[in-house]
What does this fold into?
Amino acid sequence: MSTIMKESDRGRVLIAGAGPAGLTAAYELSRAGCECLVLEKDSVVGGIARTVKHKGYYFDIGGHRFFSKIERVNKLWMAVLEEDFIRRERLSRIYYNKKFFHYPLSPLNCLLGLGVWNSFLALLSYLAAFLFPSKQEDSFEHWIRNRFGNRLYNTFFKSYTEKVWGIPCSEIGAEWAAQRIKGLSLLAVVKHALIDSRFKNKSKAGTIKSLIGQFDYPKYGPGMLWERVAELVGQNGSQVWLESQVEAILWEGSSVKALEIQRNGHRETVDAAELISSMPIGEVIQKLRPAAPPEVLDAANALRYRDFLTVALIIDRPHVFPDNWIYVHEPAVKLGRIQNFKNWSPSMVPDQTKTCLGLEYFCFEGDSLWTMKDEELIELGKRELELLGLVKSDEVKEGRVARMPKAYPIYDSAYRDSLETLRKFLDKFDNFQVIGRNGMHRYNNQDHSMLTGMLAAENILGAKHDLWKVNDEQEYHEETPDEKAENILWEKLAKSTYARMDKLGFATAVGATCAMLLFAATMMLVLRGDHAAQPTLHLLREYFIGYRVTKAGAFIGVAYAFVWGFMFGWLFSYLRNLFIAFYIYRAKRKIELLTFKDFLDHF
It folds into this structure.
């Protein structure tokens, strides 16, 4: 049965998807007095940032730290959550061979965890990578091997990364590492090296927040944030419809005209003045009516996603491990990561004598893991926890399974060309914007997704933002005037202080300066006839053969002074350039390791 919405419904902004991006757009538009309708196919809001409730326990679909450089995002979080936004201490480690390893890896930690012989072999492998790095860095495998060596790559990174993506590391583009690294300019290196220590002891109220030490978090998980945002959207005169599946996007010319949706067993048509979509961009193309051109449909079908499921287990033990989450790099289990939700927020566990662990499995929709029955997944989780030596099977009292399709856009070798084809096609529309992680097939964090929603709302209100620049080369964060001025100052300092010195030019300048000084000193003594001072310069005859304090000697001295000055200047500039290059290399490597840690944290 098909129904046309009443006339008063015409002109609303339609938003497909009630995740962080879609609800943020609705929140901003409704506050500005613009009526919108949010359509969510699921029975809850929040998307991948939802919180599942089970008998008083709360657990996330993956852990979601609340940290952002985007001030307007921070303000929204605080305005909505207020006192329910808590500060948490952060600890996350790698778990391998029944031992915990801190990241970045430290020599002592590796020595104690791997043993003397394996640590020695890892050191040799690291030195080999350091001295003879691969010139080719077009895959994640090459990127890691160049920085850790082959042995540490196989020990700590290969298993986990392939669990996450389901494809060999050699087929994963280095881009998803480079997405965190290509912002490492000379400016970033200099600021980190020279002023990083100033902020290590900043208080909670400080402007610099540590990715390592602390993070903010809603008292009952991120789902409570998005439930409140949905309530505020309703209070502002807009609506959020759950269990409303978009079936078709009706378009004509350069405009989207309406959506066909399935709701309450009925098929309805909703007119659209504007459309914002956080649906997977491939699904968007497939739902267009009339159909998109064949090459565009082929590009949509080429985009791939990694799916995700959580097995939440209630453990009859008050403490299991102190971490908020751990990375499981043990190849003997399918498990990829374990969340300890009581360490995210004690309020998520109603009985403090118990612990709630979230066992995270990465899979493809339809594979053996995805189609496994919930009871079988719970038993699998119990077995693997016992195999890892963390929890005994009889300590697990009950469990709950939650599945999340299309959790991670895959950056394979074909995705860039496919996405570019879709972008060019969607650019033809004047009232249609895509936002969020899946809407843009970009590995956006929660704050990036929210920012795309904010900017999309502003575009409807008259702005002209390019949403594809969000999280592009890490230029997503807004700078205050003071920060901008400070960065300009540091950039000038970096360019002037750490610029490569021209050896030939500096050597010539030093040589010429020495020659002119010796010539001037010699001629001054000759003209003044100062015989008392002449013996001092006469000492140069020991080194400059033929030099005398005479007019002819002055010219001979010029030649000698220039040659020696030139040699000294060239050597000085060579050593200075070598030292600066090594200093920048070391600083950059340190930042790379820390940014790679941040990258892992956002899986």
